[in-house]
Structure formats: structure tokens, C-alpha cells
Amino acid sequence: MGRKRILFAFIVSFFLASCTSSGPRQPIDEAERLLALDAAYQTLINIPAKTSAPDSVLLLLTDDSRFWLEAIERAALNEDSAFVEQRPFHEILTILTYRLLLRENVLSEYPDYRMLRFALGEQGILRRAKDLKLGPFETRNDRGTRGLQDSPRVPIMIFRWDERRWKFDLPESMTLLTRGLATISVKKDWSNSKTALTLLQRYYHNVFFNINESLLHPIPSI
Fold first, then answer.
1. pLDDT digits (tens, 9 = 90+) for 32-53
2. Torsion angle in degrees (nearest 10) through CA of 67, 129, 184, 61
3. Bridge pairing between strands 151-162 and 165-168
4. Residues of the chain with pLDDT under 50
């Protein structure tokens, strides 16, 4: 059943793309856009992160997402703690996780575009969204959203309608996906970096050791 759903998503995506590639552009009604939104989501979360062609994946993301991926990878490779700790929580968590997986050689399996593949891969925050009980998609103007099943009106995933297709807004979605985690800092009066490190220690406690403040600094020789 899962394979049929994925295949259907690809067919819908291909059909919509072909409709825009030639001939006069016909208006797309909301029912078709909603169907296309679900197809875009299914395509995104089922991308094989290790083997997919980067250019084809980037077409599924907004321009802001592409720029953000480039900037956050530079930060992960180069920024010291003084700069990292000034960033918002979702970026700190991304940087520290990326550095941890670099240090443990997990990302060595990725031939190129490591931050892109990491963001969409099994270790990335986006892929973990598959474990959430999500509600229905909603569209409003050029914005598509999806929230949790228990609170569908509160979005945690954002898509933008651009060039007659839905594109995923990665940084905004990551902000929303980690919003609940970020509140731990406020409740416990912790810094965002301490909260991120604590979460990594809990998540990887049986996998990796030495998850500590050293991750606030660039990984040597990377």
C-alpha cells in the first residue's frame, strides 16, 4: 500500500509539472492544489537521501531553503561557540547534530551536498516528522500547511506555491517542528545550546559518547 501511495505521488507531481512545461497555462483549482500538496510531501519524505541527485531534490525546496542550507553548513564547519550560541534553537540543534555525525563519520556515506542529504536523511529532523501523527493539509493563497492530528490548525510544516508547484520551506518548518523542544530552555532556565546538547545526549546515549560542549566548536580536520 505504501509503494502505491508513493507511486501515486510521483505520478501527480509529474502530471502537474508536465502541464506547466508547454502550452497555455490553465488555472489550477484548490482541490488540485491540495492533491498536489500531498504529492509533494510524499515525494519529499521518501527521497533516498544518500543516492538522490541533488539538483532534483533542490527543485523541491524554496529558494530561501537553499540559501539557508548553504549558510548553515558554512556555520557548522566554521563558526565558534560565541557565534553558534547567538543563533535560534533550531539552527543550534542542526549545527550540533551535523557536527556530531561528522565527527562519528556517519556523514562520510554522503558523497556530496552533505547538509542537504543530512537534512532530508534518516538522522535529520525532517525525517523524524514521519513518526508524528499529522493532521490534514490546508492551503491558503500560496501557503500550504500541515499540523499535528490533535491540533491541525497549528502548522508545523510549511510549503510555498511557486512556479505552479509546491516547494518545501525547510527553515521555517524546522523552526515549527522544534518549537516544543525549544521551550525546554525557558522552563529549565537553560541556554539553547545546553538544551540542544541534552537532547542529543538523550537521543544518542546508546550510540555515541562524549556528546558535550566540544560540539560548540568546529570539528578538527573536517
1. 999 999 999 998 888 888 888 9
2. 10
3. antiparallel
4. 1-22
3-state secondary structure of 94: helix
**SS3 state of residue 2:** helix
What Cα–Cα distance (Å) separates residue 31 from each residue in 27, 35, 52, 106, 162?
12, 6, 30, 41, 17
- Long-range contacts made by residues 143-146, C-beta under 8 angstroms, separation at least 24? 144/33, 144/37, 146/41
Q: Spell out where the chain has E strands.
A: 134-140, 143-148, 151-162, 165-168
Residue 124: count other Cβ atoms within 10 Å of its Cβ: 21
Segment holding 91, helix H or strand E: helix 89-103
Beta bridge partners of 85: none
For the segment 7-24, what is each residue's pLDDT rounded down to a tens digit?
444 444 444 444 444 455
pTM assigned to the model: 0.83
- What gap in Å lies between CA 32 and CA 148, rounded to an integer? 22
Q: Bridge-partner residues for 168, per DSSP?
A: 61, 159
Report the chain's mean pLDDT, rounded to a whole number.
86
Alpha-carbon distance 196 to 88, whole Å?
A: 11
Handedness of CA 69, 90, 94, 140 (dihedral sign): negative
CA angle 68, 207, 92 (to 5 degrees): 25
